[in-house]
Amino acid sequence: MPLTATSLAATDPELVAIADRFASDVERDAPLEPRLRALLRVAALVATGGTAVLRVEIDDALAAGVTPVALKEVLYQAVPYAGLGRAVEAVVVANELLADHDHELPLPGQGTVTPATRDADGLTVQKRIVGDDAVDAMHANAPADEQHVQRFLAAHCFGDHYTRGGLDVPTRELVTLALLVALGGADPQVAGHVRANLHVGNDRPTLVTVLTQLLPVVGYPRTLNALRALDDVAPTSTEPPTEEES
Known about the structure:
mainly alpha; AhpD-like; 14 helices
């Protein structure tokens, strides 16, 4: 996050220096493609509610080549995880910056479902990402008076969002993980989406890199909790290879 481009460079130069050193450390040990890094940090900042830094990060994302469509898809996808209030606030900030960059709004639509298809299409995508058995178990284990929430998950989280254009499914899963990690207090959901990320091809090294990149945005406690979830779901081998494996 280029805080040197903000008024903090004059008012709080020591904070800017600390942030810059931290960013350099992260980039050295966990480099990530700039556009993906920007999208994931935007997602995390939406969840934490850091509007001042979010403005800087969105501006940097556009400068790094993130398309307006990809940016808006991250913000829209924040709705079922961070809630409407934070997501809409972020959209307002993004719209102001997009106007500054001479992008015409509204952007081309990315929806692919209709009111008649969102339930079935959402359930199909949910099972593809989370797994048939896991989704069936969620429905089977939910009390009768909570079954509607499971239907909402399929239709809204997956039907209204994961079926959209603008971002591929592996990227959307990383965005969802960034949102959940940044929220804090969502450890079961973080673990669930670690599994989902692995299921769509985002391997352990990728997830370690992503979580490291989120560290300056979300802080150590939330990052360490997410790394614990990753270690529980996809532990790295600490044993020396056997003779057959070496």
